[in-house]
Amino acid sequence: MAQATAQPKNFGFGEDERALKDIAKKFFQDNLPTNQLHSLVAADSSAMRGGQCCWDLGLWQQVVDLGWLMAAVPERAGGLGMSAVAVAGLVEEVGQAAFPCPLISTLNTTYILKACNTQPADQALGYIVQGKSFSYASCNRHGSWGHNESDLVVENGVINGSVYFVQDAQKVNCFLVNAKTDGKVVLYVIDANAQGLSINPDSIVDLTRDQATLVFNNVAVEASQLVASAAESLNALATATAAWLVLLSADMCGAAEWQLQTTAEYARTRQQFDRTIGFFQAVKHPLVEFMVEIDQARSLLYNAACAIDHEPDMAEQYARMAKAVANDAVGFGSRKSVQLHGGIGFTWECYVHLYLKRQLHSQALLGDATYQREKLAELVLSS
Question: Which of 51, 113, 152, 295 has the fewest C-beta atoms under 10 angstroms from its C-beta?
């Protein structure tokens, strides 16, 4: 069990963390303005567009070259070893840009591999340092994210079965899969081009992400691909849960900040009844309420991120609080962002729909606010 220490001032968000966040903000402002994002992911407005994967591979390579892919990789494996607070700040900027990329999926996998603390896991972390992207694949046919409920089975050196709701499946180089052998969960690294592996894209509401079902048909695995034993795997997954929730909450808060600032700017410029619509209380009050809700969610997410490094025993509780409140904030703010844009807010040409759809997808990922509060209650009552 990790040693708990007192949380530092301002959640440990210091000059280095601020510098990384500012660099990321400037990078996305320069390389992915919202009109360019819209052209990239929303060029096809057909209702039957299917599970398209729209992203800029050249821009992604720039992100890899900046070293962000290995931000959470510990120094022992050749990474930058950044704090969870610094990584959360980076992901907040990814969310504000709604950047289509496998960065968050790779960071999620990094936290699992780091928690395994085995030589094969460190070798997989080395792949991330080299620039390979990962996605964690676990969800079963019932939609459960439970660590011990995988539909994948390893028998006689091959994996069979399906895993659902895999994020960024069409973008990543490798998968970290949760599979059962002799009824016990273990973790394997699988190449995205492995023979017998099919990637079946899902049609999802979010235009900035892709999701798929992975079908394993006698996919051969070797002992070298096993990154952790059953006990090590379950412990690593339990440890990494807080980080997944924190990173998703950070993405949601970043996207919410874009929604707030864009809607406030529209309210400052849109004229109606001989004055800007921001003059009216019916517009002012929802914007202020949204701002307060974002600040609440952001405070909780950085508290949870800080706990990952300083209060690991409390990290999951704090992270579930953060995800629940982030869900509440973006549920309210996304509706208001569209509503306060008026009629144009319902059009394909207005950019707010990109963020509404990203937030809808994020709200469902890893469980909605009700689910998070139920899990939080279980944790509190069992402690």
Answer: 295
